[in-house]
Amino acid sequence: MFGVVFPNRSFPIDISTFSQIDTFHWVLDMKFFVGEAYEDIKEMCIFLLSSGSLPPDKALAVYIQSPGSAFLFCGAVSIGRPSAVLPLQWPDPGGHMQLTSAADTVPLSAKIGVSVEDLAALPSLDPASEGRIERLALKVGENLFNFMQSFCSVDGSRLVVPMDILDRWFKKFQERAKRDPDYLKGFAL
To answer: What range(s) does the Hikeshi-like C-terminal domain occupy (predicted)?
Structure first.
């Protein structure tokens, strides 16, 4: 159904390397795969092995779990997006897991979980890209703010800027991007 590659760390791993929990859930114990240094694995590529692996309304969701933490959603693949490189931002060990009974135990090693879920129920197939877009918007906003500061004056408790400041900033931004193709790469994260 699916395979996984840890770039620069592994050959392709198929579903048989994962422990199957039930029909729709698999877990890879990172202790057996990499030992205690699971946090050194920063990304993984997950891919469907064939176009018939999943129904069109389903997705394979990927979750990670540090020892003692809850599972954290990383992204997903579906028929419309049959492969993805997902960043693995491991949660802090031991953080935010509540035990409900004495029978509950804290996991002793990090895990990667894969589950078949309804595509419509997932928040986003690539939550990391949303974070990159937010960081990009923040950097562009900082650029605008820095430009505006050089033209500001203070009137009591107010900052006063020229009315055409946005037009001037955008024109300068466009001209710089045309002159220097690497300029915009500085905004990407």
So the answer is: 134-185
